[in-house]
Design a protein that fits this description.
five-stranded mixed sheet, alpha/beta, Alpha-Beta Plaits, Molybdenum Cofactor Biosythetic Enzyme, Chain A, about 40% helix, 14 helices, homodimer, 3 domains, Maf protein, about 400 residues, six-stranded mixed sheet
Chain lengths: ~400, ~400
């Protein structure tokens, strides 16, 4: 079973939009045992669409498309694909009702152009889209499937999750795929490869290196859980001191889970990350059960007045220092009366670096009632990467401190 | 001049990594007048790499690749592409020195595997990569260019910005591209299309609809600035009441620019967005010039103790209410002594919705010394989208309030 995705849209090629749909679709399919073999992004032109579809429809069992189903002149995917299969377009009254209903609900006047959205190619099935006016479209022939979705993420996600994955699960006898992802940090990909070089990995067990920003994930997957487990155990034995988790999506998610499980509360004081650590934690539903709140102390005044960092500390050691990080963590913990707290202060750049504290210098402090731990980091890369690495290491340090504490 | 990108990596197809490199490369090339015509993502297999390269090298003048240049068994891009062109691999001592230097600098022992990274295909040129151990590789034949880059974003960004764009600018006589992006909100793509339907857009002027989450951008571009301008002016006349900006990357960036220009200071109180608004503003260098800090009041206690929201207000109207939003905005403004402030409180879901305040209900309040403005929104979609829409509308409301204020 070979699967491909065709992403249609100038905005992707112009770099105006990041193709997050692609990752969502790849991940959703992998969960039900279908692996994307190829993704192609093309502009909204008839030529590009029909050429790529020709290639994909010949060589793949499942083809998904995103984009170009809107009502404007730009949106030529439906017409082009109907032409490709030699199908006429028919007006579908059920789709039309849904389009009208959505405009009514938003109390907006419907432009005439939106009538086009109710056109469905002959022999195609419209899939109801509760999130927008463009229906999904499905076509099935010679044991091959084509699914067309709009490019708007919430609409694509709805169609995938509520309809297309279910259709695929029913249509194909999919092997159950067993997946274990082992998360490492502080070790280069090449060093991992050397350490596990002699572990035998043969079909049906597959191993993939998945480098992340500043760390590496290893994925062991395949149809045989017993054989997978053997490989996983061997890898874990070799790399145990470098492993921080298993089967979580990110260090932030692991901290979210741990705090939910262990019943401790948390507060945060952020400087150079400007709220990123809190943003990550609150992106997970249920964060309010442990996360009490935090302070973004972007100015020295905020550090002094709110977090009660000593003016003397700031003058003597600077805002980016071990001493300030400690006082920030202890200050925010006191304010929120939380069991745990963390702070981060650093030079994210591009300006503000000095000889002693170059851009990338970051101090992170974590505290609970028994202990305060503080570390200095010097991250490389641009502002974005330095902030990301800082946020991740807040999570890693919280993991360490949690390990040193019992359950609540 | 036709350009294509080949993204190589299982992690992309598994949805484990979002292909941000693609957007970066598309955007960087567009800035110097080169438009990506196609992007293909394939797994790390010899077959996939040589088949796709065959297709692209025949049909495009410029081919870029990312991924698969690391030192592990997975990383087969270099060897496969060398084979494709019938080139042997040679050991390059200059590259080797750089690899050794980078390990020395990090004080890490170098695994033997990394010697592979110093191998360069015959007739290829190694491009120095200061950010990592895999050099970029360039090949030039029959007026066609191939550039190979590692998949690690900071390494790819370095190679593009510091080397490849300059090489391309020198190698090709590129037409200067004039681009104007008009940002709209509160109007559907189809409604825009109807309003501007009769505006004549002919070569060399091009118009693209770039739908964003909850709003639409229009890009007018081409080689003739005078003709572009005429179209831009016409569009602006038709849509003026729906336009919030021109040539900025996001509402957050516009607020960042405005506060830098106008010299006002800003503080923030966030509940459902959990720090996202502050994270966005501080992602721009120089935010410390106007952003004093903020409070993430994720618990009622934080709203009462820190922001001085009246307990009575919370009991009577609830945490998600106009009244609470107002007190949050006014409270944070007082604490930070800022000229402006904003607050956001809402139900991001998936739980916590009620009949009266369903998931997606969000109150945003913005304040300065003269005025406090508050609005209720009901956003659709999932938690992620509701939070994004909330953050964006904080920026839109700050724009409105700034318009109503003079310069400092």
């Amino acid at each position: 079973m070979k699967a491909a995705l065709l992403s249609i849209g100038n905005e992707l090629l112009l770099g105006k939009t990041i193709n997050t749909n692609f990752a969502f679709i790849g991940k959703s399919l992998a969960k039900i045992g279908i692996y994307l073999d190829k993704e192609i992004t093309i502009p909204d032109t008839e030529k590009a669409i029909s050429e790529s579809l020709d290639l994909l429809w010949k060589n793949y069992d499942l083809v998904l498309t995103t984009g170009g189903l809107g009502p404007t002149k730009d949106d030529i995917t439906k017409k082009t694909i109907a032409d490709f299969f030699g199908k006429a377009l028919f007006f579908d009254y059920k789709v039309w009702e849904n389009v009208q209903f959505l405009f009514l609900k938003k109390k907006r006047k419907m432009p005439n152009l939106n009538r086009n959205q109710a056109l469905v190619p002959q022999d195609f099935v419209a899939i109801e889209n509760k999130m927008g006016t463009a229906p999904g479209l499905a076509y099935h022939k010679d044991n091959k499937f084509l699914f067309m979705m709009p490019g708007v993420p919430k609409e694509m996600e709805y169609l995938m999750t509520e309809h297309i994955l279910n259709i695929l699960k029913k249509a194909f006898k999919l092997p159950k795929i067993d997946i274990t992802t082992i998360h490492t940090k502080g070790i280069a990909e090449s060093a991992i490869a050397e350490l596990i070089d002699d572990i035998v990995v043969e079909e049906p067990v597959r191993l993939a290196f998945l480098p992340q920003t500043g760390r590496v994930d290893l994925r062991v997957y395949g149809t045989n859980p017993v054989k997978n487990k053997k490989v996983v155990e061997e890898i874990k034995e070799r790399l145990h001191h470098k492993i921080w988790g298993e089967n979580v999506s990110s260090p932030g998610e692991l901290i979210h889970q741990k705090f939910l499980e262990e019943g401790f509360t948390l507060s945060l004081a952020e400087s150079c990350t400007g709220g990123m650590v809190q943003e990550i934690l609150t992106s997970f539903p249920g964060a309010s059960k442990y996360f009490l709140g935090g302070i973004v102390s972007y100015s020295n005044q905020a550090k002094i007045n709110l977090l009660k960092v000593q003016e003397n500390t700031l003058n003597k050691y600077g805002a980016v220092s071990e001493e300030t990080a400690i006082e920030m963590a202890q200050g925010v913990k006191k304010i929120f009366k939380s069991d745990f707290s963390a702070s981060v202060t650093g030079v994210a750049g591009p300006d503000g670096g000095t000889f002693e504290k170059p851009v990338g210098t970051v101090f992170i402090s974590v505290a609970n009632n028994d202990k305060t731990m503080t570390k200095k980091f010097v991250f490389s890369g641009n502002r974005k990467r330095i902030r990301q690495m800082s946020a991740e290491n807040v999570f890693f340090m919280l993991m360490d401190l949690l390990k040193k504490s019992g359950n609540k």
